[in-house]
């Protein structure tokens, strides 16, 4: 048995015994305290800093010492050494302050988790849209009334039911319908086990739920009308579940939770890496998401006042990594050349095989994947938006740490994906954070005074007067990062190559610890007691992310012989909250009429609901995804040059006519010719 030590966390007061050798961050999680991390515990984000308190703490009967944590390693020391001003301003010294993801518990310790390191529950921005869906569920209910067996006709229970069911099905569908004969019907094993007792208890009058008109999955006494299903979008960050009535299509409950896999890695690559490096990695990742799905199912059933066993089907969508992890398929080949998933086709599997707590005979349908990084969530997005039925060319973009893009119309659809990195979601940006209370979500800068105004999640209105927001700001989230960079460019604080201009008459533009920066919020406006800037490095991170996304879009346009798309559709939570004009001003999305740029929210969730409520749509998306052409960006010979051109705001050579009036002092960049071959 491993040794245990007492860990006490302040200010929450949580305490408990943890195994020796556990990281402080993992120990905190076990004790119910979330500590921030946006670098997948790689000692690069510093969001997980904690303080070790030293001395005898009678109240808790422990002696807390710095030596009760493992010695500082090279990477941790390197990170802390790069932050001398921060440590000085806080009065912290190395050894007292530690990266909780790196240090391990070797003895009793009292740990202080400072405000800026405390994990906040992300605001889950995934709601279901109202939309018309033709209801054709895969599960139908039939009422069957049978003559009880007797000595003259001792037919077995299943065959008796199957014959009765054949008659009921013919009555419902009419004489023209192509239906299986009774001997072609089958019954789920779990359902068979309780069949005899159910039939007798129900006096041979039952309601039978049949999946795809071929397999009996539930037999209920008497007449029952309703059945239920759940559609789920498993995002890398958020899992959203929609509980629906399968007969009416009504949305009964929508629940969401953070994806618990986040503790094993912020983005899909780090989760793949985790699964590769840890023998039990896949199991942990799989179990974590299944536990969350079961929790969401329970919550949704409670809201809808039904039992979870009444849920007879689930449709799951997610990127290829989420797809593999929920199906307990090892994701290692998704991350290794030649980058192939285990399966492209859609999957049907029994709920009990995955440990999903709906009716154990219920079916889990997983939408098809398209490529290693273009997953079932993209299939769902296509299903929801139907670019394959349009004459116009639509560009669909789902932006996250990875962006998936689909372009085309009824004649041809092409797709690709590109890593955009976590910068657009607030990571790798000095004061970046997720969309949570205290995050700045909008920024504007006055072009004359260079003074900013901003909005904060959880606080009403703009801070026109900076005293109003005192102590409320904690960081800056993705939508505001786009705003801030676009505004810095628009008002001339940074130039088109993303460089800060020097000598501007504003005390907000200054040379900071890590180079030039612009202060959005002064320390006294924040809850972390530090100025919140956009730094030169932050701007660079956004340039890399937006160049990747733009280059991917341009590659698809070029492959289809188009100059620009007729319509741009931004899917996903991030797309819903960014200001499209500002996104275009920095060149995150291609030039297009602004009125033709739409944010559509959680299209993957919508697609999952469509597939849940209409079984024919499953066949449709199976066939569409088989025809989508995939392009791998790194194999495109022009990729590097195009990427370099796209790092400028909005672009080194593209005119961006629709936002030209916002571009300050536009002059041709002499560098452009180097990359235009
Ligand atoms: S440095 Fe510890 S989680 Fe990023």
Average pLDDT confidence is 89
Proportion in helices = 25-40%
Q: How many beta-strand segments?
A: 29
Beta-strand content bin: 15-25%
Structural class: alpha/beta
Distance between the termini: 65 Å
- Count the helices. How many? 19
List the strand order in the largest sheet: 14-13-12-15-17-16
Bound molecules: FE2/S2 (inorganic) cluster
Over the alpha carbons, how many angstroms does the gyration radius reach?
28 Å
pLDDT < 50 stretches: 121-126
Q: How would you sum up the global shape?
A: globular
Main sheet summary: 6 strands, mixed
Strands, helices and their partners?
Blueprint lengths: L3 E7 L3 E6 L4 H7 L18 E5 L1 E3 L4 E3 L9 H8 L2 H7 L6 E3 L9 E4 L26 E7 L11 H17 L12 E2 L1 H5 L1 H7 L3 E7 L3 E7 L6 E7 L3 E8 L5 E8 L9 H10 L3 H24 L6 E8 L1 H7 L20 E4 H4 L8 E4 L9 H10 L8 E6 L2 E7 L4 E7 L19 E7 L6 E5 L18 E2 L1 H13 L18 E4 L2 E7 L10 E4 H24 L7 E5 H6 L2 H6 L11 E5 L1 H11 L1 H13 L1 E2 L8 H8 L25 H4 L2
Parallel strand pairs: 1-7, 9-11, 12-15, 15-17, 18-27, 20-29, 21-23, 27-28
Antiparallel strand pairs: 1-2, 3-6, 3-7, 4-5, 8-10, 10-11, 12-13, 13-14, 16-17, 18-19, 19-20, 21-22, 24-25, 25-26
The structure holds FE2/S2 (inorganic) cluster.
Report on the architecture of this protein.
The protein has 677 residues and is an alpha/beta fold. 28% of the residues lie in helices and 23% in strands. The protein is built from 19 helices and 29 strands. The chain has a 6-stranded mixed sheet with strand order 14-13-12-15-17-16, with helices on both faces. The structure holds FE2/S2 (inorganic) cluster.
